[in-house]
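ugh ok so i messed up the first submission bc i forgot one of the chains. this is the corrected input, ALL of the components this time, i swear. 528 residues overall. if the numbers dont match what u have on ur side tell me asap before i send this to the collaborators (the ones from the other lab, u know who)
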Amino acid sequence: MKYEKEINRRRTFAIISHPDAGKTTLTEKLLLFGGAIQTAGAVKSNKIKKHATSDFMEIERQRGISVATSVMTFEYKNYLINLLDTPGHKDFAEDTYRTLTAVDSVILVIDSVNGVEDQTRRLVEVCRMRDTPIIVFVNKMDRDGKNRFDLLEEVENELKIALHPMTWPINSGKDFKGVYNLHNKSLCLFTASTKADGEDTIAIDDLSNTILDNKIGERDAAHLREDVELLDGVYGQLNVADYLAGKISPVFFGSAVNNFGVQEMLDTFVQVAPKPLSRLTSERIVTPEEDKFSGFIFKIHANLDPKHRDRIAFMRVCSGKFERNKYYHHVRINKDVRFSNPYSFLARSKDVIEDAFPGDVIGLFDTGNFKIGDTLTEGEDFFYTGIPTFSPEIFKELVNKDPMKTKQLEKGVQQLTDEGVAQLFTQFGGNRKIIGCVGELQFEVIQYRLLHEYSAACEFRSLPYYKACWLTSKDNKKLEEFLRFKQQNSGEDKDGNPVYLAQSEWFLNTEINNNPDIQFHFSNEVNK
Ligand code: G4P
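and heres the new structure output, hopefully the right one now
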């Protein structure tokens, strides 16, 4: 176990939230604590503005900027923290889901006023697929939010996660006085601060102590005593093993913009959050402590600027030590490749790196050799598994506008779908090529890129599909029969897996009920 020290000090995670809950603000505060940025406001400019524009070039431009903040690395109390950014824009949700396969844990931000929102549900579902440990940060306590008990209940019921409060708020909005830390029994009084200068905490082991009344007033002190008695009875001590197994989520209350409650959460995070974990591959479980290097590509970022045609493939190191200029085995294409300029995303110095350890994410310049899920090793043949693909939400037929450029179009579509920009299905009846995306924006991106990068002109024709389901069955004959019978509504994905293209929920449910021998899956896995 040569690299144990390096592995043990690494924490690789992502912050997830519904847009506007405070992810960017919290990210910024964490970076301030880590000394990675010096001033508030530094992260803001990298965010895709939600209302600003629907112009995809502008969004891509902003995404281009955000490559630099895709991975933010900072040190805190001797821990090396890799914070992976996830795009806030709904149309890039697939990017976020894939990024979640490269982290060991997540922090979920919930807006205390809005509670559980759409995107929160979907993101947590993805975390649950891998039992990813989740810490919850209830943000915006300085605003009049929902009743805290109701909010916890809503989160537990809607997200189907069991919660464990670590701090407990004293009021909210104008009356917000701070939080009581149930874990280390201290009172933290609310003060608005934008710097990373720590918080004002007072140890109060015994809540009957009158210091409490002096600090927050008799009425609030009485309420807090009642609440804490109730909470102690229900929750007791945090069971870290349950958290690590993804069964229980510690909850913190605070206000990111006021830098309140953030450090308490960060301190707990570094202590309890998992170090780089073992991962499943097509052949066996690979542990980070293994001497030999291995890693996988979870995201590919292409540059839309024709002057810079490079792509950056993001690789998570899973075992051993990655070294610059060393040959590694690219399992899918069965070739040895080496990288002379692997890129590190250290927030302070974006630079070429010499080596990287499990938990680290590095950027590899790519000229089209990589696709999502590709695995690099020191010779062994295996693929990292568990990278999910979900059904697109919009389906359109790809129409070639220039038959002389058919080859270019095919190559372009192959490469763009390898990057994960969209999914490609080929319909059985008629061989139509169908592109599936999460948002309208991607169709514009695809059309633009096919024209500018591959000189292939295309247009899209809307199709009335609502969902794609991957099909499996123990009875091959039944499956073949179904596909033949439903030609107009079936096809295969890029890897040749059969899919059913449902026109509506009603059709889908009818087919599910009528075909008990066929399994309809709402997600698929790369490298399964
Ligand atoms: P996101 O990345 O999850 O989309 O959210 P972001 O951090 O951008 O926060 C969304 C808005 O919520 C921002 O306001 C931000 O200032 C505000 N916010 C974040 N944390 C808190 C908090 O603890 N309390 C309160 N009251 N507000 C908070 P904005 O007006 O959209 O942007 P800005 O003009 O402040 O930059």
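quick check: The chain has three domains: 9-88+104-272, 279-377, 388-525. that seems consistent at least. The pocket of guanosine-5',3'-tetraphosphate is lined by residues 17, 19-25, 44, 88, 139-140, 142-143, 255-258 (CB under 6 Å).
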